[in-house]
């Protein structure tokens, strides 16, 4: 099981992240200040660290140094959304950067992306009789290759990462296409319809009235 | 063209022109005087000659006259000077020369127009009244004054004198004067250039400094030790530069504080927003148990409250000090009763006692703002205090003002962070402050209120010994206007 360390001094936020990561199938631990985080990193192995920058005792950049000694990927998580700080964090060796406030889908997507980069996740994802190879980005159904466009592939991954979770059209759009969702286009619906048809998921991808879609299984 | 060259090319020619005109005038004047004197002398000489000639001839009887010659007569009274610069001649009306001694031939002398002989020219001007005339003649390099007089015998007596020395003197003077003018011009021009160079060097320094300053080198100053206008201009420049640098530093400090405030504000805003958005997102996307939903809702509620506190405090902070306060007299210790009534509920909840002890006295200030000040201080003390402790407020009448002290028995504040506690969003213990619902703006607001009242305040604390805040309210210099309006109201009632 993948273990994630959440370093965040704001208890509500730490709890929020833990709650969602646990539901997504990760194991979590919370450190409320820099020293506790450094101790935890030294004592126990983690697969990923979500690190706030403004922390009591030791700040995020200092904790990052500890994380680098044990070669654990780090995602910065902070309210300071300024470019300079992003650049500084990434320069120091952070894998990614999540600016507060964030949406849960974005958090999960980034966590998974970094884990995949570090080969911490399963390379082959399975859904019913569908098998997805994230290395070669190929999809097979009952052994037969299925031809998916890039967007359809991304869409499938998003559904897989958010099983049993209602995905809003805007969330889908922002995660797959990027950019601001205008709220009028039919792009999301068209792609979801095509994906359902290609993989025979009509019964599993459920449309939720006025919201979006949910993958049930 | 540079100003120094302009000045140089204007002053020098004017100087030379003036010197030339003036010098020429003086030399020429002196020359004319000499020439006049010389001519006078020649005229006198001619007159003397004529008188002697007439006297001698008159003294001779006709017999004697017939036996002698004019030559002999003249020689009896006239000796040709040793110098060869003069001469005399006598001739009759027909032009027959009766006496001649000069080396220079009179005929060879011509007047300047060279039309007639000099003698003829003079003769033609003689009339009944004037029996003597003169002319200046040129022969080669030499100049002569020729005087012709008509004697009573009808003879013409012509004398001449070489006046070249007068001209030579004038030419020599001119030559010397020209050298003088040349030297003077060079000297004056040189001095002018040197002076201008120094003046302009200072100007260049000034201009250089100005350009540097404009390019952003705000420490650029001019060093000119001079009492003149340029020196004063340099002083003025330095003064302006100092003032501008100071202002710029103030602005930079202001901007930095503003940036710090904005960064802290952004953090304080985004933190509760993250929870609110995150939990709301969780609820709407997931099937949650009743407990989980309640927990999410509770977080959303609490963080929303936190945002509310932030917004209100911030609004209060922004509004305070915006308008001029009209101080009124606030009676102590009556005012403390008002404070006690307002803070009673929150203190009771934590079983904290408010102990007040104040001398009779008056505070001058805005009642609402001062109430806000003390409530914030009590609030701050309450958050730092354990249950079953006390908060003490004491008031002392001091010379020139009134001193109010708010003291708690809480955990105190480390000395090294005392200076920061009035910074907006600064929290000594963030997690505790959060739990107590603080936004980190209370003391920043108090600071504003103290400032608009021109009061002074001080913090004293040691960890574990509580925090003491002392505020000195100064009496106003001008007597405070009584609240006329309220009296009028009362009368109306």
Kindly name the structural category of chain B.
alpha+beta
CATH superfamily of the largest domain in chain B: PAS domain
Order of strands, main sheet of chain B, comes to 2-1-5-4-3
Q: How much β-strand is present in the residues of chain A? A: 15-25%
Write out key terms for the chains shown:
heterodimer, A: 217 residues, alpha/beta, Rossmann fold, Arc Repressor Mutant, subunit A, 4-stranded antiparallel sheet, 8 helices, 12 strands, B: 493 residues, Beta-Lactamase, rod-shaped
Question: Can you offer a commentary on this structure?
Answer:
- The complex is a heterodimer of chains A (217) and B (493).
- Chain A has 217 residues and is an alpha/beta fold.
- Chain A has helices at 11-23, 34-43, 60-69, 83-91, 104-117, 150-161, 169-177, 187-199; strands at 3-7, 27-31, 48-51, 74-78, 96-99, 124-127, 130-133, 138-141, 144-146, 167-168, 205-208, 212-215.
- In chain A, the strands form 3 sheets. In chain A, strands 2-1-3-4-5 form a 5-stranded parallel β-sheet, with helices on both faces. Chain A has a 4-stranded antiparallel β-sheet with strand order 6-7-8-9, with no helix packed on it. A 3-stranded antiparallel β-sheet of chain A has the order 10-12-11.
- In chain A, strand 8 (138-141) and strand 9 form a beta hairpin.
- The two termini of chain A are 21 Å apart.
- Chain B has 493 residues and is of the alpha+beta class.
- Chain B is rod-shaped and about 175 Å long.
- The two termini of chain B are 84 Å apart.
- At the A-B interface, helix 1 and strand 10 of A face helix 6, helix 7 and helix 10 of B.
